[in-house]
Fold:
Amino acid sequence: MYIAKKWLKSAGLYLTLSFAAVISLWVEAAEPLQELEQQLSQVSAAEALTLLDEFRLEPISASSYDKAKLHFLYGMQYQRSRELDKAIASYDTAIALTQSLAVSDLLINTHLERSFVLYLKTNDPEVYCGDRDKALTLARLYSNKTLLAKSLTQKAFCYNKVTNVHQGIALLDEAMLLIDTEGNTDYNRKAMIYNATGSLYRTVGLHKRGYVNFNKAYQTWSEIDDTQDMFNMLHNMISEAVKLGDWDQARSNIARQFSLALSAPEFIDFRFFAHLNAGRVELATHNYSDAIEHLKQAILLKDTTQEQYFVTSSYLFLAQAYLRTGEVKKAADMARTFKQNSQFPKNMTGMALTANAIIALDEQQYLSAIHALLEVIDKERDKSKQIIDNEVIDSALEHNAKLAEFENQLLANQLAINELSLAAVEDKERIYDLRVSIFFLVAMVLVIAIMFLWHSRKAFKHSAQTDFLTGIANRGHAFKQGQRMLDRAIKKQRSLAVIIFDIDNFKSINDRFGHHVGDLAIKAVARRAERWLRDCDLIGRIGGEEFLIVLPDVTEAEAMDISERLREGIAAQPFQFDEQVIELTVSLGLAALNAPQTSLTELINRADRGLYKAKFSGKNRVYFVEQCA
Structure:
C-alpha cells in the first residue's frame, strides 16, 4: 500500500510538471500574438496589414487556434479598411479552424464580426443573422458576461419586423443586466444597447424615441472619440428626423457628417453618405434640384464604399427626384440601374415596387404603374396596422427576461456546488481513512449549517425590508435608509432631493376594474419608475399607491428633470393588465435639501405639500416646492 501511494504521488508530480510545461509553451506561443494585437490597435488599417504580412508564427506554437487568431486579426483590419470580401474570407478561415475546438472568445467574436461585415455588404438580416444566432448559442454556453451581452445586443438587431420586435426588446433587457452601468470601460456595450433600442423603436414607428436612443449612442461613442460609430449614429438620426419631419435636426446632423468627413479623411466613404443623406432630405422637402445635385455627387463617390445597399438606394432616390422634375426618362434609367442589383434585400419590397412604377410610367404602362403604387400604399397601411395591433409589450417581457436570467444563475450555482461537494468527497476517500472522512463531513455539515443560517438571516432581512407587492423598499426601510442618505448628504455637504408621487384617480381604477387590476397597476408603475432611476437612488412604497424616491447628489435642475422624465415615462404608454388597457398618470411633489433641515420627515412633508398642489393644479404634473413657493 505504501509503495502504491508513493508511485501515485510520483506519477502525479510528473503529470503536474508535464502540464506546467505545456502551459508554459502555450503562453510563450500566445505572447507574440498578444503583442501583435496590441500593436495593431495603435496604427492605421494599412499599417496594421503591413505588420500582419511581416508577422510569422513559430512552428512550435502554430496550433489551429493560433492560426485562427491570425486570420481573425486580418479580418479585423480588412474590416477597418472596408475590404469586405477579404474580411469575410479571413473570418471564414478562422471559423473553419476553431469550430472543432472548445468554445472560445475567438470563435464567438469571429461569428459576430463576420455578421457585421455581411451586414455592411448586404443590409439583409437573412444573410447576416445566421452568424448572430450561432454566436448567441455559443455565448450562452460560455462564461463571459461581456461577450454574452455583446451577442444578445447584436442578435436584437435581427428582430426587424413589427411582429417580433418584442423578442429583440427581451434580449436587450437581458443584456442590460450584464453591463456595468457605473464603470467607464463598457462604452461600446452601452452605446450598442442604445443603438439597438433605437433600431427596434424605429421598426414599430416610435421615431421620436428612436431618435433619442440613437442620440444617446452618439453621445456615448463621442466619449471615447469613436468617429466611425458617431458618423453611423448621425446617419440613423437623420433617418429618424426625416420620418418626424424635423428638418432642422436633419440638416444639423448632415452638417455634422460633412464636418466629420472633413476632419477624418481616412474614412473615405463619409462624403458619400453625407451627400446621400443631404439628397434624401432635399427630396423630402421638395428641393428637387438640390436633391439631384447631392445624389449625383453620392453616385460619383460610390466606389469609396462597399455598402452596396446604400449605393443601390441612391439610384432610386435620384430616380424619384428626376420624376418630380418631370424628367421621366432619366428617372426610369436610374430605376433600371436600381433594379440591376439582384442582391438587394428582399424585405425592401416597397422600394422595388416604387422602381417598377417609375419604369412602367416611362413605358406608358399606366395601369401597371398605378397598381405598383397602390401596392406600396397597401404595404405601408398593413405595416401601420401591425404597429397598432402590436403594442409594445412592456412589463411582462421585462419580468420574464429577468426571471429567466435569475433562474439560470441559480441553476448554475447549484450545479457548481454539487460538483465541488462530489469532488471533495472523492478526494477525501482516496487520501484519508474513515475517521478523517467523518471529521471532514461533520465539518462540512457545520459549514453548511452556518451558511444556511447566514443566508436565512439575509433572506429574512431582505423580506423585512421589501414591499410584498412591488418588490421595492417598504415604508419602514424606505424611511430608515432615506434618513441615512440624508445624514450622509448633510455630513459631506452634498445635495439631495425627495420626490413623493402617487397614481392619479387610483380609486376609480379599483372601482371600475377591481382590486386585482389596482394591484397590477401599482406593480407596473413601480417597475416603470425604477427605470428612470440610478442604482444609488432609493425608491419605496410608503402607502397604498404612494411612493417615495430619494435622489442623492443631484442639483435642483437635475431632480426636476428626473421627475419630469418619470412623469412622462409613465404617461407616455398605456398599461395592459389581463385584457384591460389603462392609461395611468402620476402627480409628483419635489423638495430639495436646504441647510436647516436634518430630518427626512421634514423633507417628505414639504414634498407632500408639493404633491397636494400638483393634484390641486390638475394632476399629471410635477410641483417643485422651492420653484413654485
User: Anything to note?
Assistant: The radius of gyration is 30 Å. The chain is about 70% helix and 5% strand. The longest strand covers residues 496-503. The beta strands are 496-503, 538-541, 546-552, 575-577, 580-582, 586-592, 622-624.
